[in-house]
Amino acid sequence: MLKSVRILGVLVHSGPASEVIAHIDDRVAQRSSTRVAFLNAHLSNLCSRNPAFQKELDGFLVLNDGVGLDIASWALHGAKFPHNLNGTDFVTSLLDRTRHDLRIFLLGTSNEVVSEAARRIEARWPRHKVVDHHHGFLDQSNEASLKDRLVQAKPDLILVGMGNLRQERWIARHVPDVCPCGVAVGAWLDFIAGAVPRAPAWVRAVRSEWVFRLCLEPRRLAGRFLVGNLVFLARLGRAKLRASATT
C-alpha cells in the first residue's frame, strides 16, 4: 500500500516503484482518471506561489522526487521517504514494467525532439505504440487541433513534457477528457531523444543530477537550483518552527 504525507501543503504518495506502477496499471485497466506529477523542491516553490493550483494537485497522484523531499519529510515527519521516485527514472521504469501494451501520445518540447523521442520509444519499447505526438508550444490557434488529434488517437497514456507548471496545468484541464491517464514528465522527452544528456550513473547514484544539469545550463537553471533550493529550505524551516510552536 502506498503511504501518503503532506509536504508543505501538498499530499505526496510514496512506495516502491513496483507498487506505484501496479497501482497505475490497475487504474489504466479500469480506465480511471489518473494524473501523475512529481514533487521536487522547484515544484513545491511554484505551488507556494499558486495556492489554487496547489489545491488542484490533490487530484493528482503526486510522487516524491529528489533529496529535497527527503529533507522535508525528515524535518516534518521524522523520517525520509524510503524510496526516491525520480521522475525521469520512474517514467522509464513504467514503460519497462507495466503489464499493459500502451497506446501513448507525446506532448512537449519541439517538433524535431518529440518526433525523435517517438522514434526511440518505439525502438526501445516495441510492445508500446506511439499513436501521435505534438510539440509543447501551445496557444489558442493549435489547442483545438490538438484535442481533435487526441480524440482520434485514443491513447491510454499521454506523457506531457512542457515544464512546471504548464504540464501539470494542462493535465489538470484535459485529463481524463482526452485521455484517461496523464503523466507530467519534465525533461524526459529531451533525455529519451538524446537532445539533452543525462548525468553519469555515479552522479545519479549520489543524487546530484541537479548539479550536472546546472553545469550544463547555468544561466537557465541557476535561479531554479541555487536560489530555489534556498527558498525551499527557508520555507521548510518556517513550517518546522510553526509545527514546533503548536506542540
Tell me what you see in this structure.
This protein is α/β, with parallel strands linked by helices and 247 residues long. The protein is built from twelve helices and eight strands. It has a six-stranded parallel β-sheet, with helices on both faces.
Keywords for this structure?
247 residues; 12 helices; two-stranded antiparallel sheet; six-stranded parallel sheet; alpha/beta
State the separation between the terminal residues, measured CA to CA. 29 Å
Structure class = alpha/beta
Average pLDDT confidence is 94
- Encode the helix/strand succession as letters: EEHEHHEHHEHEHEHEHHHH
Q: Give the strand line-up of the largest sheet.
A: 4-3-8-7-5-6
Q: Give the overall shape.
A: globular
Strand tally: 8
Biggest sheet descriptor? 6 strands, parallel
The assembly state of the depicted protein chains is single chain
How many H/I helical runs?
Answer: 12
Radius of gyration: 18 Å
**Residues in helices, as a percent range:** 40-55%
Beta-strand proportion: 15-25%
Parts with pLDDT < 50 across at least 5 consecutive residues: none
Overall number of structural domains? 1
